[in-house]
Amino acid sequence: MTKLLNLQAFKDFFRSGQIGGILLMVCVVISLSIANSGYKEEFSSLLSTDLGFTFGTKAYSFTVAAWINDALMAVFFLLVGLEIKRELVEGELSSVKKASLPVVAALGGMLVPAFIYFIFNSGSPTASGWGIPMATDIAFALAIIAMLGKSVPPSLKIFLAALAIVDDLGAILVIAIFYTDQVHFDYLIWAGGVLLLLLIFNYFKVKPLYFYLVPGIVLWYFIHHSGIHATIAGVLLALTVPANTTNAESPLEKLEHLLNGPVNYFIMPIFALANTNITFQKEMLGGLISPLGLGIVTGLFAGKTIGVTLFSWLAVKFKLGSLPSGSGWKHIIGLGMLAGIGFTMSIFISLLSFSDEMNITEAKFAVLCASVISGLIGFVFLKSTKKTKA
Description:
The protein is mostly helical. The protein has helices at 8-35, 40-48, 64-90, 96-121, 138-147, 154-178, 185-203, 210-226, 232-240, 251-275, 282-287, 291-317, 329-338, 343-353, 357-383; strands at 50-55, 58-63. The protein has a two-stranded antiparallel ribbon with strand order 1-2. Strand 1 (50-55) and strand 2 (58-63) form a beta hairpin. The longest helix is centred in the N-terminal third of the chain and has 28 residues, at 8-35.
């Protein structure tokens, strides 16, 4: 019997990504407005407020900012992990032929920006930020390509989603491997035990989601205390949730459907609200032409465009894949520009890269500028291809 793909999860993801991207933009504007108003100290104080609970004899307390960046973002990474697994099982990454072009394009979109940043910052105190321009923001990129409507072929939207998902996987690996300072192996062993339990549930095809979500919270706790960034727990949990290749809704698709709304309408906007509160100073304009600023802006806009286009051309040249149906090289160039919208993930990696507050602020500002440049130029470029054959 022919297997049918359940495309509802992708449709929900794409639809919520459009609206979520717009909501994200609104929250960026609100956050910037607060940071440059008389309420900036109060807002900063709110983010630094301890919030927690007591369980038995132990108190579990984190700042509001830590709850957002460590706990809520773990749910975001859970959704990203679910999207990656679904694409591997039944989507654009489910076969070598399907996956080749977006995987190779994403690889170029990570390596070239990181190399450009390295050129600008090698040997400097900001060299650790090389992972910042590697990331693509799925929500923003999909929101902009959705605004293009029929100006671009539908296949290009799916290609961008697959590329951004591979890009996120790369960013997750970079965070896990390169942005972990110290590992506490006792907690890591406990985390491994919880992960083994989840894999056993998966092996025996246990379907109720609470068998995964409750241990997932415990997994987050152990990962958080192990020294590895807690958001990795979301990805590990996602990989254990059962999936299928039929048109029947799997536990993975059910959970993805449940998380799409909260992540796109609440978690990512809250992250933007908490982490783009940049107080503008005239020195920041000079920061854009510092090695840090140039590495990020050039890496995201030029690096992503060159990397995605060049590696896509190599993949087609060596017959590893073919261009999305109805698209040409101008579309790939424009898509490479949109991939330069690093926003959420780039800002997140900025927080992990530096301890100096000024470096973090300059990095955020550079990411914001680069994302605006990439989004605007990418939109205009792709819009101009509407009646032009590539």
